[in-house]
Amino acid sequence: MFRDVAKAFGAVQALRGVSFAVAAGEAHACVGENGAGKSTLLKILAGSIRPDRGDVSWEGERMHFASPREALERGIGMVHQEMLAFPNLSVTANIFAGREITRGWGRLNEQAMRARTQELLTRLHVPVTPDTPMDRVSTACAQLVQVARALAFECRVLVLDEPTTSLTDAEVDHLFGVVTGLRAQGVTILFVSHRLPEVYRLCDRITVLRDGQFAGTFDRATTPSDDIVRAMVGREPPKRVARRRPSGATGDSPAVAPALRVENLTRRPAFEGISFHVAPGEIVGMFGLVGSGRTEILETLFGLAAPDAGQVAIDGQPVQVRSARDAGKAGLALVPEDRQRQGLFFNLSLRHNLVLPLAAKQDVRVIDDAREEAAAELQVKSLAIRTPHLRVTPDALSGGNQQKVVAGKWLATEPRVLLLDEPTKGVDVGAKFEIHNLIRGQADTGMACLLVSSDLPEVLSLADRILVMREGRLRGELRGGDATEEAVMRLATHDVEAATQDGGTA
What we know:
seven-stranded mixed beta sheet; Rossmann fold; alpha/beta
């Protein structure tokens, strides 16, 4: 039970008297746009921060935690979206970090911890051993290790904060099977996700937060998803519509030279013999299952890894890109998949994040504060980045606004080609459509856009053409207006003949 919970960070009011109840043994979803207050509420529950007002109670007992460890010892376990692990330590050491089992004279009881770890791994069907180093554990297994850590001391409430953003469909199925089993054993589930199909699949009731306030609790069985979206954004949900293809955007006409041409690009073992082009004003989607080589292609184009063979040309001119600086000067920009580790400097202000690529491209030697301030303000205004001022660091912004900063810092360089790797990963439905409009707007100005996404409806909505990868090879191309989910998935798996019959080329 959350009762009148309020929290402010300086002038930003994150929570404004939130009250709602979670029943024991149920799976309860908490949803809302980025910045709605979900993460703040979870941190209060997990003991990371203290509320300014209000309290949290469980089964009639008020809970005030001084630390996450205290919350865990009282039965509140949390699985974070971002992996929290010691990569150089074993699975056992990660599960018991800070709460080690000891015996006489404070010595570690490694045998007991290893046995308990094996019991938990078996219970959760995690295919690793207690002694496996965490840096050798897959993303899906690492999430389950976090669940095991929460269960090591009889967790009563399990909080899942966006646990599926880096998982394949099969891995999501496994995680949800584990969670369903835990619920059957009496564990209460509090699930936070931007993916409404997952919410409807797992949860009984759905609580919506909007602008730090309680917007309602809804019964999943009787509430259409559009009603949830409407409660989240405070307006009618935007409709997903296919983009109207600009004239000549595919570069098939000899008069239209490709903005980006790739010939026989190879980087073993990730991908081999990749050839394609992107015309000015065109959005080309690249789809493939995990391990197909999509992200590695973007990294290679942007100079983050060296190719074994192949040529790249921008506006007909061959380029050799060996670094991000080279890429920026050549007219390339990359919005990476992992904004936390690859897209932002969290120790620098918003202003510096927004102007650094432009300064590097222009080889700026002397900082001009007024010029930087004006350039950053222009990006904040043009992209509608919601921030109190330019002096804040990116962690003060919501996920959707962080993603806009990642895009804005490269758009300031006025690139010819925009590379986008999972641009709407981990953002809410409102921010997703804002980012879609941003991509469409850049293409409408003549920018070539190469989009990698695991969200197939997103690819179908945005792309003029769809390139389909499988096992490091380009397996076919589909026209955006004619493609179907079935045709794309056939190419992405193995059924090439059937896919080509649906309008593709292989």
